[in-house]
Write a structure and sequence with these properties.
By secondary structure, the chain is of the alpha+beta class. The protein has 15 helices and 24 strands. The chain has a 6-stranded antiparallel barrel. A 5-stranded antiparallel beta sheet has the order 2-1-5-4-3, with helices on both faces.
Length: about 625
């Protein structure tokens, strides 16, 4: 936009100083500028021819936009001091607003013929490129119509000139892009930042025919000269170096390219440092270009040329274009060549700047959230409870076994039934026992008769033998009576049958000592907890806890640890210790064999310590194994 604005201004001034810019036969960019400056003469000739062809023409104006802005300025006028200028300008403003041709009558006291002003918009690709306004004496309607047709036909030359200007600008942009790409390829081919920067200034000096090109970096609010074209060493305290750095600072402070002598690159710029460097180098031409990456100043370029060949606008635009294309790649090389610790420091500084600077709201909220969590977990404490798998078992368990070998006569109860004390659980078949008892009773009666016979004949020896045999028969009778009494197996106490079901074995044989039933007392339970070996050191007898059963999850049952046993059990590849605890309350809903989770209260600890304990222990164990 800046380039187009300056070009339009040069065309406006071409009638007074058409040779403002010097040319160079070997420089294509300068020749392009010269062809553009000649357009002002073409516009002037166009307007003069129009006014000469139109009969009765009094004055004429040709207005064109200033660059890409909607500001229109006169580019050609006829005659040099045309009358009715204000009326023509007012008519042109209406045409610009309405985008349509207008005709208006003007006051004419000097002649009897009517005076009209005609303003015609000129379009190119539906874009308003110019407005031509001519005032003339009109005697008839046909003359006015003819005048408008002539203006419309002649407007083609303005359109053609605009197309040529657009094509010329496209060619110039393509040339600048090709030069920038070639320069970028040359810079990227270098292995490191220093050689790439030296390649940049050298290539710029050659392509722009400069005596010297300097590259400086911007650090701590001032520029520092780093590279000179065609030179790898230079004194840091030389007046020339300080002057070049001042020139770079002057361009960076004003955030625009500055050329000396002034060629209209930027209006209202300060060029004191440029003038000083020019005088120091024998009135040389100086151009400074600030270098930006994402609106951040990275440095500046300083170009010097002999006074016979000042910089042109096209060369300034070409230099800016090439710098904008190459500087990001050069900055990447500089960042990549930094030492590792420097990269870490710069990265940390950059992240801190983003954290405490403007923007990056999400990152700030995340850090605040993490900080709040850290502070909370540093001071917040909670109850540390050890969780373990739990099973509810009877505190004691009585076994009802078969008293002798026999057969099951009847079985009224089975596992899960609640029984009372001395209630019959199972009855064994006692018919064989009754027969055996009759046998021994008969044997006893026989021995009694033999005893009386021996007593009658006073056979002392036989009497003693019969007494011993009677004692043996009495013992056998007592055994049979005992077995008859135990033919009915009774419940030892009020309780629950937790094992045994003989309802499917009626008439079946049982052996002496065979377990028939297991009976547990009601409401008298103990809890077996399986605690990981890594947590067994936290347990002590007397610690309190709560039991949450799977069948009754809504009702916790308090308990107290009563015994830490040395018994272990392997489960899922881990070792568990068995810990016993007793319930502190009773409930009719409890049944032996229920399982759930027991939570044992250990102490109060920080929440972060509770939640990360397993991770810390695993990490410590790994470190110990590595160091071992």
């Amino acid at each position: 936009m800046e380039e187009q604005t300056t070009t339009s201004s040069s065309m406006m001034q071409s009638d007074t100083s058409p040779d403002t810019y010097s040319t160079n036969a070997d420089n294509d960019l300068s020749s392009n500028i010269m062809s553009q400056s000649q357009q002002a003469n073409v516009y002037q000739q166009y307007l003069e021819q129009q006014c000469e062809v139109i009969s009765g023409a009094q004055s004429g104006l040709l207005l064109m936009p200033l660059g890409n802005q909607d500001v229109y300025q006169p580019i050609a006028r006829w005659p040099s001091s045309p009358p009715f200028v204000e009326e023509l300008i007012a008519l042109v403003e209406q045409v610009i607003e309405g985008k349509a041709a207008l005709v208006t009558a003007l006051e004419n006291e000097a002649s009897e013929a009517e005076l009209f002003a005609v303003a015609l918009p000129i379009f190119s690709d539906e874009r308003l490129i110019a407005v031509v306004a001519i005032s003339a004496q009109i005697k008839s309607q046909e003359q006015l119509t003819t005048m408008m047709k002539q203006m419309q036909l002649a407007s083609v030359s303005v359109e053609l000139l605009d197309v040529k200007s657009s094509l010329l600008e496209i060619d110039n942009s393509r040339d600048r892009l090709e030069a920038g790409v070639d320069l970028l390829a040359s810079v990227m081919s270098e292995p490191d930042y220093a050689s790439a920067a030296m390649r940049l200034v050298t290539e710029l000096a050659v392509s722009l025919n400069c005596d010297r090109v300097c590259l400086g970096s911007y650090k701590k609010e001032r520029s520092r000269l780093e590279h000179l074209s065609h030179s790898t060493q230079f004194g840091k305290r030389m007046n020339l170096v300080r002057s070049i750095e001042e020139v770079m600072d002057e361009a960076i402070d004003q955030k625009s390219s500055i050329a000396y002598p002034d060629i209209g690159v930027a209006d209202g710029t300060i060029t004191q440092a440029h003038q000083k460097l020019s005088q120091l180098q024998g009135d040389s031409c100086v151009l400074s270009v600030p270098l930006f990456i994402n609106s951040e100043v990275k440095g500046a370029l300083c170009l010097e040329r002999s006074p016979e060949r000042p910089f042109s606008l096209e060369e300034v635009a070409a230099c800016e274009s090439m710098a904008a294309l190459v500087v990001p790649a050069l900055e990447d090389k500089r960042l990549n060549d930094r030492p590792l610790f420097k990269k870490a420091l710069d990265s940390g500084s950059n992240q801190l700047g983003r954290l405490f600077g403007a923007g990056y709201l999400g990152r700030k909220l995340f850090v605040i959230f993490v900080s709040a969590l850290f502070i909370f977990f540093s001071f917040a404490e909670g109850k540390y409870r050890l969780s373990a798998d739990a099973r509810l078992d009877s505190y004691i368990q009585r076994v009802v076994a078969a008293p002798y070998d026999g057969y099951i006569y009847s079985a009224v109860h089975r596992a899960g039934d609640v029984v009372s004390k001395d209630q019959v659980l199972v009855r064994l078949d006692d018919r064989d026992l009754h027969l055996e008892r009759l046998k021994w009773l008969s044997e006893k009666a026989k021995l009694k008769r033999q005893y009386q016979e021996a007593l009658a004949i006073h056979d002392r020896a036989k009497i003693n033998i019969i007494n011993a045999q009677q004692d043996q028969v009495d013992a056998q009778l007592k055994l049979v009576d005992s077995q008859l009494q135990r033919a009915e197996l009774l419940a030892p106490f009020d309780g629950l049958i937790v094992g045994g079901d003989l309802s499917q074995r009626l008439g079946g044989a049982v052996e002496k000592g065979e377990v028939l039933f297991e009976v547990s007392p009601l409401h008298f339970y103990r809890i077996n907890l399986l605690v990981k070996e890594s947590r067994i050191a936290d347990l002590r007898v007397g610690q309190n806890g709560s039991l949450h059963l799977s069948a009754l999850p809504e009702a916790p049952f308090p308990f107290v640890v009563t015994k830490v046993t040395p018994l272990t059990e392997s489960k899922d590849g881990a070792t568990y210790f068995t810990v016993e605890a007793s319930l502190q309350g009773q409930s009719e809903q409890l049944q032996p064999g229920m399982e759930g989770i027991g939570k044992i209260y250990i102490d109060d600890r920080k929440l972060i310590s509770i939640w990360t304990r397993e991770l810390n222990e695993w990490f410590r164990l790994k470190i110990w194994s590595w160091w071992a």
